[in-house]
Amino acid sequence: MTPTLTPNRAADRLRRAADEATRLGYEALLLAPSPDLRYLCGYEPMPLERLTMLLLAADREPTMIVPELEAPLAAASPAGGVMTLAPWRDGVDPYALTASLLPRAGRVAVGDRLWATHLLGLQAASPGLSFSPAADVMAGLRAKKDPDELDALRRAGAAADRTFADVIAMSFAGRRELDVAADLADLLVAHGHDRADFTIVASGPNAASPHHEPGERTIAEGELVVLDFGGALDGYFSDTTRTVAVGEVSAEAREVHEVVRRAQAAACDAVRPGAAAQDVDRAARRVIEEAGYGDRFIHRTGHGIGLEVHEPPYVIEGNELVLAPGMTFSVEPGVYLEGRLGVRIEDIVAVTDDGVERLNTSPRELRTVA
Ligand code: ZN
Ligand code: ZN
Ligand code: ZN
């Protein structure tokens, strides 16, 4: 079932966002077309040179400054009935219009997807205001998923798991990375994704580059291959990684895989309400450091996931954010040996009332493919 944002839920999210902005001392919260806007209104038009902007403030109804020609679309969105539209026609200055709806002075929070050209226009039209990133308002709201969002993420995870089960039944040796990537993309859609968003296939030495772009390289017997893939399902993302062995691989490859598997398990075990995000990173890093590969684990352990593939909270040393039920993020340690091989294992997890729920259940032991 599609988690369509109901007008009631949109109204509730809009109210909570406005309250949070007020609590943090902002006069207003301004959001351009972005996942933030979709989260609050169920409306995400293409960002364009014409200004579309949601304005939330303590003392007014949610207001959307919208090009007149797109006003019917905004009105038809889930939040259409609970916001006031402020349409503007081509030729009118939308920044002056926005400024006329804002106080003369104070702090305003702006979404991080607002184009620089729009922000510069706003700044020029409202010299008494100072602008700050809205991430501190929106990240906390979006981090804790409601039951419908969790359900969508669960279904996306299950569809990614079925994709993995199918792809390892196919042959790898003798085919190009691009061919396996095309299979992954087809399978993601066949298993229910709206679309495939990324399909990393990194073979042999290419696997030492975590975000390798699949290319012409032909996969050979005896290599490890990192498969990192995902897409959106009902707007919510999957993102999973498994590293497979093509036939017999070296003892070193098997050892590195086992270290990463243990690190990933330790990190998942560290996920529970009350723990800090950085505790999860530390749990993974400790295992990899003790095995002697500490300086080859070259990225954070994970990222939040939801309407975006990468969103807060980030699982990294220094993030003291306290984990709470409903938060969803990836746990994806890796070890990368330049010029030789790479291993990464990634699952999406959800913080529950008393621990962790894994949204990916594909086997984590080293799988051998043909
Ligand atoms: Zn990544
Ligand atoms: Zn990934
Ligand atoms: Zn990821």
Query: What is the end-to-end distance?
Result: 37 Å
Helix content: 25-40%
Proportion of residues in extended strands:
15-25%
Major β-sheet strand ordering: 4-3-2-1-5-6
Largest sheet features: 6 strands, mixed
- Class based on secondary structure composition and strand pairing: alpha+beta
User: How many E strands?
Assistant: 18
Rg over alpha carbons = 23 Å
Number of helices in the DSSP assignment: 10
SSE string, helices as H and strands as E: HEHEEHEHEHEHHHEEEEHHEEEEEEEE
Please, what is the average pLDDT?
97
Bound molecules: zinc ion
**What is the overall silhouette?**
elongated
What low-confidence regions span 5 or more consecutive residues with pLDDT below 50? none
Structure in a nutshell:
34% of the residues lie in helices and 25% in strands. With 370 residues, it is α+β, with helices and mostly antiparallel strands.
Key structural traits:
370 residues, alpha+beta, five-stranded mixed sheet, elongated, binds zinc ion
What does this structure look like?
- This protein is an alpha+beta fold.
- It is built from 10 helices and 18 strands.
- A 6-stranded mixed beta sheet has the order 4-3-2-1-5-6. Strands 7, 8, 9, 10 and 18 form a 5-stranded mixed beta sheet that branches. Strands 13-16-17 form a 3-stranded antiparallel beta sheet.
- The longest helix is centred in the middle third of the chain and has 21 residues, at about 145-165.
- The chain starts with 6 loop residues before the first helix and ends with a strand.
- About 50% of the residues are buried.
- The structure holds zinc ion (3 copies).
- One zinc ion binds near residues 228, 239, 241 and 346.
